Amino acid sequence: MKYYVGIDLGGTNIVAGVVDENYKIIAKYSEPTNASRTFEEVCASIANAAFEATKKANLDMGDIEAVGVGSPGCVNRKTNLLVFSNNLGWENVPFQDELEKHFAMPVYIENDANCAALGEVLVGAARDYENACMITLGTGVGGGIIIDKKIFSGSDRLGAEIGHTTLLYGGEICSCGLKGCFEAYASATALIRQIKQAIKQHPESLLNKLCEGNLDKVEAKTAFDAMDKGDDVAIKVVDQYISYVAAGVGSMMSLFRPEVVIVGGGVSNAGDKLMKPLTEKTKHLTFTRNQAENPPIVLAELGNDAGIIGAAMLAKM
User: Fold this and answer.
1) Does this model's pTM top 0.90?
2) How far apart are CA 169 and CA 137, in angstroms?
3) Is residue 129 a contact partner of residue 110, using CB atoms and an 8 Å limit?
4) Would you say 15 and 33 are in contact if contact means Cβ atoms under 8 Å apart?
5) Tens of pLDDT, residues 282-292
C-alpha cells in the first residue's frame, strides 16, 4: 500500500491527513494556522502537522510517497513563488522552496479549491464523471475545474480563479481589490452584507429579530432561517443571492460545458433551499439553454476532506 500526505491550509487551521492509494484518509491532525506569523513559521507548522498525522497513522515519513498542500492562492510554476494569497496576506513568497526544506520526499502545491474539486471527482459527488466544475460558497468563492480527471489551472497555474471573474463591471469591491467579482456577490461574506443592508432598510423584518438587532450576529444562514418562516424581506434577499450564484454557474457551464457542477462551502448547508432554485435559475442562463439540458448541479459530499484527498493525490496527477 502506498501512502500520501494531503494538507489543507486555511486561514484558521492547518489540517493534515494521511491518505492511502485508494483515497481513504487513515489519520488526521490539525493545528492553528496563526496566519499573522511569517510564512516560514507557518511552513514549519505545516511540516509538524504532516509529521503528527503520520504518527497517528502508525507510519513514519519514510512510508510517505509525497506531500501535497492545498493553499489559498496559487504557486507560479515558472517562478516557484506563491504569487498572491489575500487570506494569508502573502505575496510572492517562496512557499514551495521553504516547504521542501522540511521534507525528504516530493512536495506539490496547488490552489485549495482545485484540490477540493479533484477530491470530489476522485471519490466524492462527481466520482462518476471525468469533467467537472466546482464552486465553494464560503468566506470567499473558490472554484475548481477538472478536465479528464486532472486539474486545469492555466499555463502557469494562476488560472481557474472562478471567484474573481467579473459578475458586474465596476460593482462591489472584492477582497482581492477588484470590483464586481463573482465572490463579491456570491460568497457567504457577500450574503451577510446583503442581509445587513436589508435589515437597515427594513428593521421590522424577521431578519433583524433573528440577530436580536445586533448586525454582528448576522450569519449567512440567517436569511434562510427567516425565509423558512415566511419573511418577505428574507425571501427577496435569498432570491437575489441565488440569482447571483446562478449567473456565475451559468457562465461556467457556457465556458466549460462540464458533465457536472459541484457546489460546496458553508452556504451549501442550506441544501435544497439553495440547490432547487439554483438549478431552476441556471436553466435560463446558459448559451445552450434552448437546445440542451444543463449539466446537473450537485452538492459536494466530502466537506473539508475533499481538499485533503485532492492535495494528497497531486503526486499522481
Assistant:
1) yes
2) 21
3) no
4) no
5) 999 999 888 88
Q: Residues 230, 232, 236, 241: is their CA dihedral positive or negative? A: negative
Is residue 110 classed as helix, strand or coil in its secondary structure? strand
- State how far the alpha carbon of 56 is from the alpha carbons of 23, 64, 67, 295, in Å: 17, 13, 16, 41
Give Rg (Cα) of the chain: 20
Q: Under a CB-based contact definition with an 8 Å cutoff, are residues 277 and 223 in contact?
A: no
DSSP state of 159: -
Q: What angle do CA 44, 47, 53 make, to 5 degrees?
A: 140
Cβ(80)–Cβ(109) below 8 Å = no
How many separate helices (H) and strands (E) can be counted in the chain? 10, 13
Q: d(Cα 140, Cα 175) in Å, to the nearest integer?
A: 8
Alpha carbon of 35 to those of 8, 10, 126: distances in Å? 14, 9, 32
- Strand 64-71 and strand 75-76: the pairing is unpaired
Q: What is the pLDDT of residues 225-272, one digit of tens each?
A: 999 999 999 999 999 999 999 999 999 999 999 999 999 999 999 999
**Residue 177, burial from CB neighbour count under 10 angstroms (0-12, 13-18, 19+):** exposed
Residue 146 · residue 118 · CB < 8 Å: yes
What are the cell numbers at 84? 498572491
Strands of the chain, DSSP E: 3-9, 13-20, 25-32, 64-71, 75-76, 81-85, 90-93, 107-111, 132-137, 141-147, 150-151, 260-264, 297-299
**What is d(CA 311, CA 70) in angstroms, rounded to the nearest whole number?**
5
Integer angstrom CA distances of residue 10 from 111, 138, 280, 283: 11, 12, 33, 34
Cell numbers representing residue 303 in the block: 466537506
Q: Taking Cα atoms as reference points, which of 152, 270, 169 lies closest to residue 222?
A: 270
**pLDDT number for residue 124:** 97
